Amino acid sequence: MSSANTQRTGTYPMVTGLFRDREGAERAYRAACDRGYKANDINLAMSDETRKKWYPSGDGSSSGLGSKALEGTGAGAAIGGAVNARSEEDAEYLRDQWKGHGEHVYR
Questions:
Q1: What mean pLDDT do residues 79-107 have?
Q2: Contacts of 89 (CB under 8 A, 6+ apart)
Q3: Counts for the chain of helices (H) and strands (E), in that order
Q4: How many angstroms separate the CA atoms of 61 and 18, rounded?
């Protein structure tokens, strides 16, 4: 999304990331939550195989990522996440935070 389009529509870019392990996904999720985003602001997708591997039933995960992610989506052992940023500053913050935890991060 161009900056001109951002100003014209009043919307901000979506920040997306692909995470290859549970720890990276959990850290990225916490970074968004620490910035004030709520669970319903964050969209996740993972394969059923990944959910079973990283979030087995009753694993005690405090983040809720395993139950939050859309079922039957994604491929392989990866988790994808997306957040609609509320400002350019938030988009930059999330991108910078997620880069340390994800393989592919875009805004």
A1: 85
A2: none
A3: 5, 4
A4: 20
Q: Is the pLDDT of residue 7 over 60?
A: no
In this prediction, residues 74-98 reach a mean pLDDT of: 80
pLDDT of residue 13: 83
Q: Give the pLDDT confidence of 48-71 residue by residue, as tens digits.
A: 777 778 777 755 566 667 666 655
Please say whether the beta carbons of 79 and 47 come within 8 A.
no
> What is the CATH topology of the domain spanning 12-106?
Alpha-Beta Plaits (3.30.70)
3-state class of 16 per DSSP?
strand
Q: What DSSP state is assigned to residue 19?
A: E
Domain ranges for the chain: 12-106
Query: Is residue 65 within 8 Å of 25, Cβ to Cβ?
Result: yes
Helix axes 22-34, 88-99, angle to 10 degrees: 150
Q: Please give the full DSSP string across 6-50, using - where no structure is assigned.
A: HHHH----EEEEEESSHHHHHHHHHHHHHTT--GGGEEEEE-HHH
